Amino acid sequence: MIADREGIGSNHREWMPMKRYKIAVLDDYQNAAIESADWSVLGHRADIAVFQDHLADPEAVIERLLPFDVICVMRERSPLPRNIIERLPNLKLIASTGSGNTSIDVAAAGDHGIAVVHTGYRSDPTIEFTWALILASTRHIVTESNSVRSGAWQQTVGADLRGKTLGVLGLGRVGSEVARIGKAFGMNLIAWSQNMTPQAAEAAGAILVSKNELFEQADILTIHLVLSSRTRGLIGAAELCSSCYCCMCSNLSIA
Questions:
Q1: What's the CA gap between 143 and 130, in Å, rounded?
Q2: CA spacing 20 to 30 A to 171: which of 15, 60, 88, 158?
Q3: What is the arithmetic mean of pLDDT over 64-71?
């Protein structure tokens, strides 16, 4: 960057150093952020600090983030409410993984001239991990792996999926794909959510049932709802007590 030297004409200019931005990547437990993207374009413009640990205390979060111009958050791992945002005077940009992040106070960011942006989103990992959890639970993968590693042998008998009933709570982008895979395993599909129609359930290969019937009839229950004021507390002791065998794969997915 070229700037006029004070008191001297425009023919006399000096080079001014370009500002180097400070970028913080939060809650990178697996230390995967740097390997997951090409950060090289920022090499001459920014200093990047990756934090693998999580800070829960707001005062500690503020102290850590005070120097930074940009904060990159991993989904909802570190909330950024108003009482934190308004005490970060250098902050200019918040970047979050995923297409939405309800733990960021977007209004507070806007009030302080801070832009909030999001990355793209693919639901495939959530769908695959859902079935990893279901299969690990029904086949006792962890128990049997630990048994073999300790020198023992098979201790349990796994459950077949064919003919079992899969209950899907929420048939959005993730839930409908989870249901499709359940159908491939030969499972019977039932579903419920507050606004689900029989047509929507049928389109996913499922039968719409009541909330009580979902918990009473499902051999395996998988939950795919966005946490909100409407869904908070949707499942309680009464629902869990009414279910038989329940493999609950609960994730805050984009429905």
A1: 18
A2: 158
A3: 97
Is residue 110 a contact partner of residue 87, using CB atoms and an 8 Å limit?
no
DSSP code per residue over 66-129: TT-SEEEE-TTSS-B-HHHHTT-TT--EEEESSS--TTB-HHHHHHTT-EEEE----SHHHHHH
Q: What is residue 224's three-state secondary structure?
A: strand
As a whole number of Å, the CA-based R_g of the chain is: 25
Per-residue pLDDT reduced to its tens digit, 211-226:
999 999 999 999 998 7
- How far is the C-alpha of 148 from the C-alpha of 95, rounded, in Å? 44
Q: Which domains does the chain have, with CATH numbers?
A: 2-118 (3.40.50.720), 124-251 (3.40.50.720)
What stretch of H or E contains 13?
A: strand 13-15
- The reported pTM is 0.76
| Structure token pair of residue 241 | 């007590």
The burial class, CB within 10 Å (0-12 / 13-18 / 19+), for 89 is exposed
Tell me how long the chain is: 255
Residue closest to 113 by CA, chosen among 139, 137, 86, 135: 86
- Residue 173 tokens read as 């982008």
